[in-house]
Design brief:
The chain is α/β, with parallel strands linked by helices. The protein has helices at residues 42-49, 71-77, 93-103, 112-119, 135-147, 165-180, 215-220, 234-243, 268-274, 289-297, and strands at 2-11, 16-26, 31-35, 57-62, 65-66, 78-81, 153-157, 184-189, 200-205, 208-213, 226-230, 247-253, 256-261, 281-285. 32% of the residues lie in helices and 28% in strands.
Length: 298
């Protein structure tokens, strides 16, 4: 459904690399996630796939259409929800939806079944201007507008950034329903916890793909054992654990340190006690996708 082969993109006359030889494919009906921080290249990739930006090199197709030669067909077949709210803020909810339906030669009534579950949540506010909606409602309106012409592929660029936790959960529940309708979804997010909600993910950093697999596959590839180390003074603990001779990696995760060791750490507690930490907890834990991402950055 989506294929990319050796896609490259640079800015500022080649001095800034956005995408470096990117290749992967997304199957029909798949919910595929691009996971990475700001500046990883996710938006550049979305803009290329939605025919808004030309790659410097490589080939890409969407629903069997080339992103350069067949850009008109692609624009009729895809729905795109950019990271920044881009609807007309001075138009009402209903006016925005009617506008996008008209642009694609359809009506709200014709494809209402597809957007029904989403639109019903904002329909009571259909006469409210889009600029006056909450963050969660703006996202639901933007998703409705992206779906109104019944696209075969949906591109969502960081759709839950800046949205409250409840709205984030609701949004991903909506994506699961859309997947059941047979729509192929490519979604990007900086939130590592959302990666587990995708069928497959690509971990992206500075224009490079670090790993592509199912979320469980990414986690299972983590080498060695991972431990959570806690004590009262986390800042001092971080310095002391990193200075321990057997420490391989050590990163702060909330109130704990996630640590791997290059050799057995039987005397770590004694070492930390000698540094003044009296309430040390060392527990073996399962790695998360975020742990795997940090490991791959080394």
């Amino acid at each position: 459904m989506i294929t990319l082969t050796n896609i490259k993109k640079t800015y500022n006359k080649g001095t800034v690399q956005a995408l470096n030889d990117i290749s992967f494919s997304v199957e029909k009906g798949e919910l595929f996630g691009l996971i990475g921080p700001d500046g990883a290249g996710k938006t550049s990739l979305f803009r290329i796939l939605t025919t808004l930006l030309l790659p410097d090199a490589g080939q890409a197709t969407v629903d069997g259409c080339d992103v350069i030669k067949d850009y008109r067909q692609i624009r009729n077949r895809v729905g795109y929800m950019p990271g920044r709210f881009s609807l007309y803020q001075d138009l009402t909810v209903e006016e925005n939806l009617n506008f996008f339906a008209t642009v694609f030669g359809t009506t709200i009534k014709e494809n209402y079944d597809l957007i029904k579950d989403i639109y019903q949540q904002i329909e009571p506010f259909k006469d409210r201007r889009a600029g006056k909606l909450s963050g969660g409602m703006k996202q639901k309106l933007a998703l409705s507008c992206a779906l109104i012409h019944k696209p075969s592929v949906l591109f969502l660029d960081e759709p839950t950034t800046g949205v409250d936790v409840v709205s984030r959960k609701e949004f991903w529940a909506m994506l699961k329903k859309l997947k059941q309708e047979g729509i192929t979804i490519l979604v990007s997010t900086p939130y590592m916890d959302e990666a587990n909600l995708c069928d497959r993910i690509a971990l992206v950093q500075k224009g490079d793909i670090l790993s592509i697999d199912k979320p469980a596959g990414v986690v299972s590839s983590f080498p060695g054992e991972l431990y959570a180390v806690r004590a009262a003074n986390t800042h001092l603990l971080l310095q002391d654990v990193r200075s321990y001779p057997g420490t391989a990696t050590c990163f702060a995760f909330g109130d704990a340190l996630h640590v791997t060791f290059s050799s057995e750490a039987k005397d770590l507690k004694d070492y930390l006690h000698s540094k003044g930490h009296m309430d040390v907890s060392i527990v073996k834990i399962d790695p998360t996708i975020e742990d795997c991402f940090i490991h791959l950055l080394k």
